[in-house]
Amino acid sequence: MNYIDNIPALRSAIMGFHIQYHAALAPLTAAALLEASGQPSVVDQVTRSVEALYAGLDAIADPVALDPAATLVGQLAAFSVTWWQNLSMADEPDRGQRILAAMRRRVGETTGPDPSENPLPRAELIPPAE
């Protein structure tokens, strides 16, 4: 996974993903990602995008979009962990690291940790079953 190390590249990655894969996302995920990308604070843009995509991964309709989505979640979580120490994920101090570890496993970079150790997605962002 290539990590993103600057804010303009983060914003570009979020919007580029949304433009390219919008149709593959559940409506709730697409709306949450669009709302996140419009936040004036880059901290909010990144952390809300992480949470929206992380919660919506299992509802992505097009398998071609799964690896790019997991990669983007990992990239954004890594940036959050590195630059803000999980600033907006403070209710779970290690949430960003755990999301990053889960995405690295999901894209095949690692074999651990066990999926049972993944943080739970934010309930309000989980798309309803269709």
Give a nutshell description of this structure.
Helix content is 55%, strand content 0%.
Structural class: mainly alpha
Supply the number of structural domains: 1
User: What percentage of amino acids are in beta strands?
Assistant: under 5%
Helical content band: 55-70%
**What's the helix count?**
5
Number of strands: 0
* Poorly predicted sequence stretches spanning 5 or more consecutive residues: none
What general form does the structure show? globular
Rounded to an integer in angstroms, the radius of gyration calculated over CA atoms is 13 Å
Taken in chain order, the helices and strands follow as HHHHH
Average predicted confidence as pLDDT:
90
Largest sheet entry: none
Distance between the termini: 31 Å
